Amino acid sequence: MKPHWLMKIPENIGWYISGFADGEGSFNVSFRKGNGHRLGWQVQLTFNISQRDITNLEIIKDTMGCGRLQHRRDGVHYFVVGDNRSILDRVIPFFDKFSFFSYSKKKNFSLFRKIAFLVKQRKHLTPAGLHQIVAIRERLNEGRGRKRKYNKENIEIITKKSSETTRQTSTQGRR
């Protein structure tokens, strides 16, 4: 059953937003290093659309009922959704109903969706789950001149060190 808010969106508005996001939207998964996280990594999911004219972004924000608007000094505006609850409860159901036409955006949304559900299932808190998320992310936005602060190798090395430290701590406690 579709959420009540989603059923209230007029078809023409929903498809307009979907087409707009197909051309201007972006699904991203980033990793933030931090000692406060179980494996030393936080998985950050983000959906955003950038545009010089803020009008469409305001309509998208109001229609989806989530996210925030940001402004850069160069006149570019962003609609950004970066909290997992809104990604899972608003963004994913919206694009499940109003799907993309282009192959590349369908593919990126599908990969993003898989990662979001792995995070919802707390798989990112296990080494195997985090590696699965990293592998899926490698296929996200392929060939687009992407810049990643942390690549697959960085994450695997630090995750390995983190799990070795955990293993050592637990074996020392048994002595």
TrEMBL record:
Ranges of Basic and acidic residues composition bias in the record: 151-164
Stretches the record annotates as Disordered: 151-175
Signal peptide: none
InterPro entries linked: Homing_endonucl, LAGLIDADG_dom, LAGLIDADG_Endonuclease
Segments of skewed composition (Polar residues): 165-175
Coiled coil start-end: none
MF annotations from Gene Ontology: endonuclease activity
One Pfam family this sequence matches: LAGLIDADG_1
Domain of life: Bacteria
Residues annotated as domain Homing endonuclease LAGLIDADG: 17-115
Name the UniProt record assigns to this protein: Homing endonuclease LAGLIDADG domain-containing protein
Phylogenetic classification of the source organism: Bacteria, Candidatus Liptoniibacteriota
